[in-house]
Design a protein that fits this description.
- By secondary structure, this protein is an alpha/beta fold.
- Helix content is 37%, strand content 23%.
- Strands 1, 2, 3, 4, 5, 6, 7 and 8 form an eight-stranded mixed sheet that branches.
- The protein is globular.
């Protein structure tokens, strides 16, 4: 078993512990352009920004790993469907024996306005079943997360139907822009502590809302 928890040196450079970014979603083209797949959208943008291809298959997930600015990073898309994401995340964390502060989970949130972001260092699942499954498998909710708002469903539309529906061009544009900002926030987390990311991106959001 590989343990990447201590600082190490590669080519004379100090290399920081592995950091894992998990985006939540459902596999398959049927779900690709739905609100519930925003976590996958963010991982796709990070993959492009950092030049990391998610071509490996293990832990019930697609993933890619690389060294970025002296930081070991791993981008993960669980492939077990949203509500069963926990086993995949727990397998990654257990295999590398990582502390929970080296994990960032990115997912959609109906309690936030469409396109808004919220960064937190810990907390409950807030009714999100994918996050709930991760918390159950890790045995803790004390890990960073980045939520991307999708808003509330209209009257007479269930939450389950809402997050799995297709979205129109106007909303797609809003959510694509949010996914890009979320990728920037996640990239910042690779180099900074979660409080620094919260201070910048949560403050930005507050200014936008006022």
């Amino acid at each position: 078993m590989l343990r990447i928890q201590q600082h190490s040196a590669v080519g004379g450079r100090l290399v920081l512990p592995l950091r894992v970014i998990v985006g939540l979603g459902n596999p398959g083209l049927r779900y690709a352009q739905t609100r519930h797949n925003l976590g996958f959208w963010v991982i796709d943008r990070l993959s492009e920004r950092l030049g990391i291809s998610l071509t490996k298959h293990k832990f019930g997930a697609k993933y890619g790993a690389a060294l970025f600015r002296s930081q070991r990073i791993m981008l993960v898309k669980p492939q077990s469907f949203m509500n069963r994401s926990g086993r995949s995340v727990a397998d990654v964390m257990n295999f590398y024996q990582l502390d929970l502060d080296n994990l960032l989970v990115v997912y959609d949130d109906m309690d936030l306005a469409p396109g808004s972001l919220r960064v937190k260092g810990s907390g409950s699942a807030g009714g999100h079943k994918g996050m709930g499954d991760i918390i159950q498998h890790l045995g803790s909710d004390n890990f960073p997360r980045l939520r991307v708002g999708v808003g509330q469903p209209p009257p007479f539309v269930s939450a389950a139907d809402y997050v799995l529906q297709g979205i129109d061009a106007a909303e797609t544009k809003i959510l694509e822009e949010a996914a890009t900002r979320a990728a920037q926030a996640a990239e910042m987390w690779l180099q900074e502590d979660i409080l620094s990311v919260m201070n910048l991106y949560n403050r930005k959001q507050t200014k936008m809302e006022t």
